[in-house]
Amino acid sequence: MVKVTSFNANGLREYGRRQQALHVCEADIICLQETHWDDSVVKDVRREWLGDVFVSQGEIKARGVAILVRQGVVEGVRLVVNDDRGRLERSVRQGCPLSALLYSISAEPLAVLLNRNHGIRGIELPGGGVSLVYQYADDTTITVRDRESVGEVLESVREYGADSIPPLGFNRQPIMEFLHADEGNLRRFPEANTCEGILRLPLHTNYSLFEEYMESGIVQAPHFGLV
């Protein structure tokens, strides 16, 4: 039987309190939120904890999450999935007067979608329960027991975000901007940023000039017509 616990870790930078919290609970898997850890604390935790330590830190210390897996609980961790920053950039924030409403229309549907997917296997708990989705404010924690479930989770997340603009996890749609310049320093030709999908168009006094410089700019563009 695997024992799993999750709690807010604010204050666990100090060695004594950290030892008390991590060892008194005697859990096999510990999920921590708001760790406030920096690299030096993470190094200490990895030395103190007998097992695997997975950490995601924010840009400031008043953030961060960690998952601690005790040695011998699993044969090995084969796959770790996270984003480049470890946190959501736009989400439901604590303290917002609309947080309950925003939770119902944004975070809750994801939990419903995951729970309805029978291909996702959560972690079995003592008493017959299953740990799969934990949500609080802007945090969503998903715990699964095998690699196949990870793939199903990612597919469900893609489905959940497919109706957003842009779709969740994909680059934004191509957009168009107009070039503005000071008088006497006109920018006649179009510009493009293919990495961002932005087309910048010049402003002209009549359509014939616009058409002339657009065609000239496109024809003279490097690699025009190549994909």
What would you note in describing this structure?
This protein has 227 residues and is α+β, with helices and mostly antiparallel strands. It has helices spanning 15-24, 39-48, 99-116, 147-160, 207-219, and strands at residues 4-8, 29-33, 51-56, 65-70, 123-124, 130-131, 133-136, 139-142, 175-178, 191-193, 198-201. The chain is 29% helix and 20% strand. It has a four-stranded mixed β-sheet, covered by helices on one side. Strands 9-11-10 form a three-stranded mixed β-sheet, with no helix packed on it. Helix 3 (99-116) crosses helix 4 (147-160). The protein is elongated and about 75 Å long.
The number of E-state strands comes to 11
Q: What is the N-to-C order of secondary-structure elements (H for helix, E for strand)?
A: EHEHEEHEEEEHEEEH
Could you list the spans in which at least 5 consecutive residues all have pLDDT below 50?
87-98
Q: Helical amount among residues, as a percent range?
A: 25-40%
Cross-sheet strand order for the largest sheet:
1-2-4-3
Overall form:
elongated
In short:
The protein has helices at 15-24, 39-48, 99-116, 147-160, 207-219, and strands at residues 4-8, 29-33, 51-56, 65-70, 123-124, 130-131, 133-136, 139-142, 175-178, 191-193, 198-201. The chain has 227 residues and is α+β, with helices and mostly antiparallel strands.
